Amino acid sequence: MKLSELLGRLQEALVPIYGVQEARATARELVVAEWGVSRSRLLIEPDSEVEADEERVKEMCQELAEARPWQYVVGREEFCGEEFEVNEAVLIPRPETEELVAWAVESLFGLGVGRAVDIGTGSGAIAVSLARRLRGWSIEAVDVSAEALAVAGCNAERAGADVAFRKVDILREELPVGAYNLIVSNPPYIPESEQSVMRANVLDHEPHLALFVPDDEPLLFYERIARRGLDWLCGGGLLMFEIHEAYGAECCDMLAEVGYEEIELRYDINQKPRMIRCRKPNR
Fold first, then answer.
1. Which of 69, 74, 101, 228 has the greatest number of beta carbons closer than 10 A?
2. pLDDT for res 82
3. 147 and 89 Cβ atoms separated by less than 8 Å
4. Which of 35-39, 76-80, 114-118 is predicted least confidently?
5. pLDDT reading at 189 higher than 80
6. In which element (H, E) is residue 65 found?
7. 88-279: CATH homologous superfamily?
8. Domain map of the chain by residue range?
9. Radius of gyration of the chain from Cα atoms?
10. What mean pLDDT is reported for the chain?
11. CA separation for the pair 21, 53 (Å, rounded)
């Protein structure tokens, strides 16, 4: 099958959901991921042949037409230079979260070794990426979903990352007191009312457990982690969050009220306020 034909068929399945421009870009990403075609070849050799099984192509087009995210269709997504297995048990890692990882590593530069925990690990993307970069650190990751932890464990094994995974309901269970130099989390933060404006590829396929919070408690997970984090962190330890862009100021105010210091709100690559770093007082 010619590369141009393969791209055209995939794009045709995607256009009704994403529109022409995004469908074209998505089809290219899918071909790179599934068939290992380089991005340069996509541009300069569109009429070259690619070994694509006809039944597999038909199956993929059907799944894409049903708004299944292409990352679930191919079963993986790249994050911080590593390939991560993904399925409907976990959120698809986003580029914005790579920035949170980079900020965490930057924040710990020169500290020596320590202990970190990723709360709500999902695919394990944050925890595995930290373990690959923070040599000598003890990295832990917790999640309420056993299915997500199974995916995360496979990702850690594939990457050769030493991460200790545990099933924990962070709203009801505790972590060790004074144990961590870093707590990092990208918890559920989308108010349930926003479901009405969300695309089907997210709403119908990504796990609601990892996405939504009640409309009247948009900071549910942040408040719980922040308040208990004062016990879980050692003196001077860092707490870092990925946040909903609409609640940056509220999160900062809450953290100040709870007792954190050096609170910093950072904007992501799309110029949206999406990350917070703060520190437990060292006293």
1. 101
2. 94
3. yes
4. 35-39
5. yes
6. helix 54-65
7. Vaccinia Virus protein VP39 (3.40.50.150)
8. 3-66, 88-279
9. 20
10. 94
11. 26
